[in-house]
Write a structure and sequence with these properties.
The protein is of the alpha+beta class. 27% of the residues lie in helices and 34% in strands. A hairpin with a 2-residue loop joins strand 5 (119-127) and strand 6. The longest helix has 13 residues, at 159-171. The structure holds adenosine-5'-triphosphate (ATP). One of its GO terms (cellular component) is plasma membrane.
Length: 295
């Protein structure tokens, strides 16, 4: 018996998420004998539902919501040996993974992907016990993301994050870290450590032009200096996809990397736009770990 589970965050999509339940059920009932709808009420629900759905033998899990919901669902699935296929109906402000995979950002169009079974297999990464699909960052600028309130987000949209980051950029506060990988070691002060599986960060495409969803690698930028003048200088490089190595940047491609605070400070990471583990931790790539429905 084929089972599908649909996890909906009713608070996403400007409160319209639940309107999509009926059309989703209609499409899925053509392919699955059992379709279960579960609505989240708060943090942790989407992870728990996906974990239970996976244990229960679901063949497909659909996340209907923003990046927070998608991340949680992936975290509920990823630790299991036998994993269901995964689908995203994007209803967030950024929708990083959906963008990378070419999933339509219009929910009505996105629902159409459920009527067929075009799959791509993507890498995931794991930092401590947290799985992620897109990126991880450490530094005062990434930390500022967690200070953006829901009110600012609904008022300003993605600009809220840019605004929060820009304020921190002006303060130019560094982190003292040790970065260890087989390919390279670094010890010292950095503005930020930014890593990506997909090449995309915060909605900006191809920050890491060499990154592929299935290359088994994580792409890491050590940002040494990033005051306002420097940023203005390198931003065109970033946007024109020429970032590799410069005085201000070290670029590392690896399968496994460890981050430690040098003097015992408490630094928290940002993982796919949510608060992630505190240093120290190791990030590892899990090659071809999740099958995702795409158009
Ligand atoms: N029923 C609910 N009411 C209010 N908040 C909820 C509910 N269910 C889940 N949440 C919260 O919503 C958060 C996830 O939101 P999600 O990412 O899906 O949408 P978003 O915030 O609009 O998107 P984005 O992350 O792209 O900005 C979770 O952290 C969770 O705590």
């Amino acid at each position: 018996m084929k089972k599908a589970q649909v996890i909906i965050n009713p608070s996403s999509g400007r409160g319209k998420a639940e309107d999509y339940a009926d059309p989703i059920i209609k499409i899925l009932e053509k392919r699955y004998e059992e379709v279960e709808i579960r609505k989240t009420e708060g943090a942790g629900d989407a992870k728990r539902f996906a974990d239970e759905g996976t244990r229960d033998g679901a063949n497909l899990i659909v996340a209907v919501g923003g990046d927070g919901t998608v991340n949680e669902a992936v975290n509920g699935i990823a630790s299991h040996e036998k994993r269901p296929k995964f689908a995203i109906i994007p209803l967030g402000t950024v929708n990083d993974l959906a963008r990378v995979l070419g999933i339509p950002l219009d929910p009505e169009e996105a629902i159409e992907i459920l009527s067929e079974e075009h799959l791509v297999t993507i890498d995931l990464a794991k930092a401590s016990d947290t799985y992620f699909t897109n990126g991880l960052a450490v530094g005062k600028i990434p930390e500022s993301i967690h200070e953006v309130t829901a009110e600012e987000k609904s008022k300003l949209g993605p600009l809220a994050y840019i605004w929060a980051g820009a304020k921190k950029l002006l303060e130019n506060e560094k982190i003292a870290v040790k970065v260890l990988s087989e390919e390279r070691e670094f010890e010292g002060e950095l503005t930020a450590v930014v890593m990506s599986l997909t090449g995309q960060l915060g909605g900006i495409k191809e920050v890491f032009p060499e990154a592929k969803l299935q290359d088994g690698k994580i792409h890491i930028l050590l940002v040494h200096e990033m005051d306002l003048a420097e940023t203005a200088k390198i931003l065109p490089e970033i946007l024109s996809r020429q970032i590799t190595e410069s005085e201000n940047m070290t670029y590392i491609t690896t399968e496994k990397v460890t981050l430690e605070a040098l003097h015992g400070e408490d630094y928290v990471s940002d993982v796919d736009g949510e608060e992630g583990p505190h240093l120290p931790f190791t990030v590892e790539v899990l090659k071809a770990h999740l099958q995702v429905l795409v158009p």
